[in-house]
Structures are given as structure tokens and as C-alpha cells.
Specification:
262 residues; mainly alpha; elongated
């Protein structure tokens, strides 16, 4: 039994290392072609619309609910400590620094990552990608580069929308539970924020978008044959992208903390 467990652990580690190598090579291929003309502008803007606009309602609804829930959960504790007046400050810092970017990225990993994985996977299964190669079109540049760029550019905008809607939801609770005007609430939110809060939180959203687009395209582009392979590509894209988002977030927080202590 112990021997079989060791074999399973060994095979899992080897698979993880191989997958890391394949993803790194896939990312290197992206950077090799991302800045080289010709650029597929029409497909890029189409993907920006599909990734950004189609995800806006879901992201906004999630941010709004998170703002309400966060305020309802923490407000009684803040009142017990006599710090109810600091609710806008606390919610603003929490949302801008971590909750808004991370929750939005996870939502997009589920929606965008799985969508890209399923789309490219079905194109691989139906041999549309092979047909593009035969016709002289560069499928990697047309399908992969445009989607990764679109995800990288759109996720920061979605995070900004989620932050704004989430703070609005928090304000609605504060305005109904206490005598707080919109000017006072948002004034306290912005007065509590510094560039050290906004810049790292914004920069890491570009990396979040890159990870979601990269993993979705990688899993779909190399999908196995058959409809089961398409479903597996979409599912594994969500799981792997979500894990990497936590890793990127950890590294971003670690780098920011080191930067502040210097």
C-alpha cells in the first residue's frame, strides 16, 4: 500500500512538472508572437466585447452582493468596538486591496476560462484549427494571442466595476442603518486609500487576466479528441486557473509587503 502511494505521489509530481513546462513553453510562444505584426485587431476587439461586456452583469451582481454581505457581517462587530464610523474606511480598503480583485478574478476564471477552453477545445475536436493551419492562417495568433490580450486588458476594467458596485452596495446598507450620506461615505472611503493600496491592487489584475486567458487557451488548444475531452478541458481550465490566481495573489502581496518594508 505504501509503495503504491509513493508511486502515485511520484506520478503526480512528474505530471505537475511536465504541465508546468508545457504551460511555460506555451506562454513563451505567446510572448514571441504577441508583439509581432500582423495584429488581429478585429478578433481582438471582438474578444474584448465577449469577455468584458458579457461578464459585466455577473461581476457587478457579485460585487454588489459582496458589498452588502460584508457590511452586514462586520457592522455589528464594529459597533461593539465603538468603531462604526470607520466602516467606510474598512470596507473600502478591504474591497480595493483584496476582495474586489480576487472575487472578480475567480468569477472570470469560471466564466471566461471555461468558455475559452470549451470553445478552442471544440475547434480542436472538429479540426477547425487544423483547417486554419492548412489554409495558411496562423491559428495561434488568431485564436490564442487575441484571447489572452483581451482577458489581460478587460479584467482590470471588470475589477473597477466590481469595486464601485460593491462599495455602492455597502453604502446602501450604511445609509439605511445609520445617518450616512453618499458624500460622507465615499469621502471616507477615498480618504483612507493611498497609492500603495490602489497601484498593487490594479497591477495584479493584469496578471490575473493573463493567467485566466493563458490557461483557458492552453487547455482548449491542446484538448483531447472527443466531446469528453472538451468538457475536461473546460473543467481543468477553471481548476488550474483558480489555483494559479491564488498563487499570483500570494506573490503580489508578498512583493508589495517586501517593497513597503524596504
Amino acid at each position: 500500500m505504501e509503495f503504491m502511494d509513493l508511486q502515485k505521489i511520484k506520478s503526480t509530481v512528474i505530471y505537475g512538472l511536465e504541465e508546468t513546462g508545457h504551460i511555460s513553453r506555451f506562454a513563451g510562444r505567446f510572448f514571441a508572437q504577441a508583439f509581432r505584426p500582423p495584429f488581429e485587431w478585429k478578433e481582438f476587439f471582438k474578444q474584448c466585447y465577449l469577455i468584458g461586456y458579457s461578464s459585466l452583469f455577473l461581476v457587478s451582481a457579485t460585487g454588489f452582493i459582496m458589498g452588502i454581505v460584508l457590511t452586514l457581517q462586520i457592522r455589528p462587530t464594529m459597533i461593539s468596538f465603538g468603531a462604526a464610523s470607520y466602516m467606510p474606511n474598512m470596507v473600502g480598503i478591504a474591497f480595493i486591496r483584496e476582495i474586489g480583485p480576487m472575487v472578480t478574478a475567480l468569477i472570470c476564471a469560471g466564466k471566461i476560462g471555461s468558455g475559452i477552453g470549451a470553445e478552442l477545445g471544440s475547434m480542436r475536436v472538429t479540426e477547425q484549427i487544423d483547417a486554419m493551419e492548412v489554409s495558411g492562417t496562423n491559428p495561434f495568433k488568431f485564436l490564442v494571442v487575441t484571447r489572452i490580450w483581451a482577458a489581460t486588458m478587460m479584467l482590470p476594467l471588470l475589477v473597477i466595476a466590481a469595486d464601485f458596485v460593491g462599495l455602492t452596495g455597502s453604502y446602501l446598507i450604511e445609509s439605511t442603518r445609520g445617518d450616512v450620506t453618499a458624500t460622507l461615505y465615499f469621502g471616507r472611503v477615498f480618504s483612507s486609500l493611498v497609492l500603495g493600496d490602489v497601484i498593487p491592487a490594479t497591477v495584479k489584475t493584469f496578471f490575473f487576466g493573463f493567467v485566466i486567458g493563458l490557461i483557458g487557451c492552453y487547455k482548449g488548444f491542446f484538448s483531447k479528441k472527443g466531446t469528453a475531452g472538451v468538457g475536461k478541458a473546460a473543467n481543468s481550465a477553471v481548476v488550474l486557473a483558480s489555483l494559479l490566481l491564488f498563487l499570483v495573489d500570494f506573490l503580489a502581496v508578498l512583493v508589495a509587503d517586501i517593497f513597503y518594508t524596504i
